[in-house]
Request: fold
Amino acid sequence: MELTGAEIVIRCLKDEGVEFLFGYPGGAVLHIYDAIYQQDDVKHILVRHEQGATHAADGYARSTGNPGVVLVTSGPGATNAVTGIATAYLDSIPMVVLTGQVPTSLIGNDAFQEVDSVGITRPCVKHNFLVKDVKDLALTIKKAFYVATTGRPGPVVVDIPKDVTAHKTEYEYPDKIEMRSYDPTVKSHTGEIKRAVEMILSAQKPMIYTGGGVVLGNGSEILTELTRYLGYPITNTLMGLGAYPASDKQFLGMLGMHGTYEANMGMHHCDVLIAIGARFDDRVTGNIDKFCPDAKIIHIDIDPSSISKNVKVDVPIVGEVDPVLRDILGLLKEGKSKPDKTAIEQWWKQIEEWRSTNCLKFETNDEIIKPQQVLTELYKITNGEAYVTSDVGQHQMWSAQYYGFEKPRQWVNSGGLGTMGFGLPAAMGVQLAHPDKTVCCVTGEASIQMCIQELATCKQYNLPLKIILLNNRYMGMVRQWQEFFYERRYSQSYMETLPDFARLAESYGHVGMNIEKPADVEGALKEAMGMKDQLVFMNFLTDQKENVYPMIPAGAGLNEMILI
Amino acid sequence: MRHIISILMENESGALSRVAGLFSARGYNIESLAVAPTEDPTISRMTLVTNGSEEVVEQITKQLNKLIDVIKLSDLTEGEHIEREMMLIKVKAVGEMREEIKRLADIFHGRIIDVTETTYTIEWTGSGNKSDALIEALGGTTILETVRTGVSGISRGEKCLRM
Reply:
């Protein structure tokens, strides 16, 4: 039977097993919305801004591992989606974004709501397509899912002109697909794996440093097994948190600009660095010339272009995290050599000394709420089991530091692009994917206002998020940098007028709370978590001048931290 | 160092802009770029000349390989290879200069393919650096137009870049 292009789009999504389609209608996608109206297989989630659609799909993808799917219209629909697409690109999140386009006959005419979506998104997608013929539509959508979800994942845009959605053709969705120009399967070099094992065993002062690749590649279980077998210290990047249980004594916390003293000192002084699914980002390495001066480096990554991009490595291993770590552990167990017990004990003594500085300590008082206190309480009250999304800034760093993530995919934040406005819509995607779980969005009063319209979406779909607003009346991270590096000239980082957030939340039909005293923090959080079916917006008035410590100033090495 | 990178890619609209976009976004140099379909019309072959340290060129080839439209590539400068560039150059040719230019063209194995009372157009084919030598040699006359195709390259011997 022949179907219209619009019907084909929806059938493809159904056959791809897509649960939710996050979108916003408009002229160029009206045929597709008509097809959505006539079916129940794919549930459409109507957001209030296209940026929200992309972040929600992103949150869904990060918390499940399945691709997030977005539908927006041409022109402004597509441009509004770009921030979310770039966010997913920088963090390698699988996503398929369908953008409407003006009819093929009008492309290039500066038609109403026309932009070159393929051109605009090209630098921030893994790949993109413009479908010019309905006969290519199903195959192109198949390719989009294939490219988005395999290899190093990423967002893929499919631009579909309106006339293509009206034309008819036979529908056929291929089960499997091959592309001659794209082969994501990698077989790791056994020689390199052997060299890695030798180097791992030769270590006197080893460090395991892992990133988002372990989470994306579902390598958490084998990583934990390997790390425990070796008895080596481990640190995670911001994107890698949860890949190794934070409560474990081998875990040194996060590394990098706001990482722990023990993690950064361990990195600086290690002699063998085992980097897994991490990309030596500038926020992690600090000054690259001072990075790990004495270390031999093993780097395992699925993307060859990540290897030796910023830091020259000694043993490069291109491959998927899970099978590579299995091979390494297998060889370790087969071989006669064991890690150097005496040396490792000495190394741990040194690390424990660093750890004893207790770099994340903070003092509470009776007068003003410390943001760290809120996160520590949140951790306790949710048993460390909540999904936590965040926006970008100080609250993001405090979440990473004080909420100990035990499992992968539990922590959802925009690490690469650093997108303010990410937290709330991302939490919607997480909650839709996990309707029975507690989903918290930790945010700041600046970030939350960038996508606050999504509170309406939360009401429409009864998403009982718990929003923890750490309200310090400043763009905190900007203010912190201005305090440290601009002689306290707080240029434009203070917000003169803020809404009454609790009442704002109420006006959307949610529960709003104001919490001003440290003594009320625990009770308020408990009360909010008790409201299982309602979104609770908690406005915590926190210390205005609190800073994120420790901190490595830009240009410094990992051993040059500012402690409190 | 100068590198000549040969790329086989899907002959699709936008493929060229992906390569050009990659170079501008990551701050790599493109000295020249020549592209046309191969014997298989679904595949284009591109020859790209770039400059950079070994590390940069390694990143360039890795990033190019990552482009979904790129099927295969090879750095021709890693082995024995041949490179050719074609140039059309129109010069002012009057009086005594007509004979002089004709002689120069012959020395460089160029051909004069269009003649007017006041101009010559020379067609010349050779390897990249020779074209600069010809332009320099013509320095005594007035060059009206220079059109270069950019370098095309191929490996010597049995080594091939093909599907």
